[in-house]
Amino acid sequence: MAIQGFSHLGLCVSNLARSQRFYCKGLGFSEALRLEFSGEPSATLLGLPGVRAVRIEHEDRVRIELFESERPLA
């Protein structure tokens, strides 16, 4: 069975604003959705405490979710 496609790619970043600026101003992405969540079930699902996230898109074909956690990964 071959992979036919995927909906989005998730990336953990150390600085959400800086990363979004790079993708949007440098690579032509645009913001599609902004999220903030904490507690369950998100903490268990993501393995992170409180998270801020931005979904960015490029020409409605490529979607990336940028995640910034209250506690950075080691």
Could you explain how this protein is built, in words?
This protein has 2 helices and 4 strands; from the N terminus they run βαβαββ. Helix content is 23%, strand content 38%. The chain is globular and about 35 Å long. A hairpin with a 3-residue loop joins β3 and β4. The protein has a single domain (9-69), classed as 2,3-Dihydroxybiphenyl 1,2-Dioxygenase, domain 1 (Roll), CATH 3.10.180.10. It is of the alpha+beta class and 74 residues long.
CATH class: Alpha Beta
- Identify low-pLDDT runs: none
Helical segment tally? Answer: 2
The count of DSSP E runs of length 2 or more, i.e. the number of strands, is 4
Estimate the global geometry from the Cα principal axes.
globular
> What would you call the quaternary organization?
single chain
Strand content: 35-45%
CATH architecture: Roll
> What number is the mean pLDDT?
83
State Rg. Answer: 13 Å
Total domain units: 1
| Largest pleated sheet | 4 strands, mixed
Give me a quick take on this structure.
This protein has 74 residues and is α+β, with helices and mostly antiparallel strands. The protein has two helices and four strands.
Q: Can you tag this structure with a few keywords?
A:
single chain; 74 residues; alpha+beta; 2,3-Dihydroxybiphenyl 1,2-Dioxygenase, domain 1; 2 helices; 4 strands; 23% helix
